[in-house]
Amino acid sequence: MNRQGAGRGTERQPAVHAPAAATAAVSAYGEADRERRRGVRRMKATAGGLLLLVAVGYVLAKWAQDTGAGAWAGYVSAACEAGMVGALADWFAVTALFRRPLGLPIPHTAIIPTKKDQLGVSLGEFVGENFLSSEVVRARLHAVGIGARLGAWLAEPGHADRVTAELATALRGALTVLRDSDVQAVVGEAVTRRAEAQEIAPGIGKLLARIVEDRGHTRVVDLVVSRAHDWLVLHGDSVVDAVQGGAPGWTPRFVDRRVGDRVHRELLRFVTEMRDMPEHPARGALDRFLRDFARELQSDTDTRARVERLKGEVLGRPEVQDLIASAWGAVRAMIVAAAEDEQSELRLRVRASLLSLGARMTADARLRAKVDGWVEGAAVYVVTTYQDEITALITDTVAGWDAEQTTRKIEAHIGRDLQFIRINGTVVGSLAGLAIYTVSRAVGG
């Protein structure tokens, strides 16, 4: 690959799948990056100045050695010569990471721009093998002790209040995002489908049989009879008028009046006796009727079929469908109001539950162990199931970076420290050259 291709990464662009936001984030070059670049330039100047210093020292030492200045000139010359070699070698090594030294197409140079994609693949594999393995995740989470920390955190009233408030905010947000028409349609369909699929007659029959057995219906009978008695006392004329209105036209009016009065008195007597006598025959007849009806609801095919037809007719009425659909609006308003009110029963119960959970987790080692197991299992499932996707995210993101911008940003972050390699190479090279020269002179002497 030529230098231009390496710099811009044009040969890899068709294979890039990273999001544009990731590329833009890497390409952005802010004030912090410019300040790092200035630091890199200062360190380059320092390393270059040290190379220039040993080069000047080498020239002066060689001149002094040629003019017979003494044995010291040889030591200085050897040290400066080795220092130059070390400085140049480390300059080449550091420069080869980011670009081609002197623009020459030397193999295995400009490593970062030319090997960017391979580095991304290696980074993804490294993260997957060393950070996303089930053993590492489980061991790390077990050492953290999520259950104990979470229990202690939730046991604090302030933290419980914060979680309750966040949950209320999230609930309000979710209810706000949902469109009432969509939810109403779903609720209406779900309720209708469930009601149509479930036969209700046997359940109603069992419930009615239990109510009759427990004498639960007697209060209803007492209430109805008592209200009927009071109504007959207050509206006797209505009964008489009803009887007179239904009498034949040829009967005398005084006869119709007497018949009406007699009907009213008999009705009032019957209702009064039924109200005051728990063992009244009419009550017993009603009990037998309810028992028989409950049994038929459970076992009689015709009765169950009639109930199902009635259920279908009721569910199919527009008023019932509108009622089912409108129920969501009432429930939504109730939930939103409860979520917004800090003193609502909903929020108080949630807060109390969180505090209770925190106290239990703090005191109960078995519960903490269960929570730790749940968290570890969930985390292990995520990393093992989506390990390839996570590492692919790293690989694709690195592949989407612009090679030139990536090189500049990496150099801005680590270039200053890399210049110390050049400085250390100059110093260590000088010391090594001096040592070698000294040993060779000693052996030669």
Automatic annotation (TrEMBL):
The domain of life is: Bacteria
Q: What is this protein called?
A: Membrane protein
GO cellular component terms given for this protein: plasma membrane
Enumerate the UniProt keywords alphabetically: Membrane, Transmembrane, Transmembrane helix
Q: Any transmembrane segments, and where? A: 43-61
Q: Could you tell me which InterPro entries the record lists for this protein?
A: DUF445
Q: Which Pfam families match?
A: DUF445
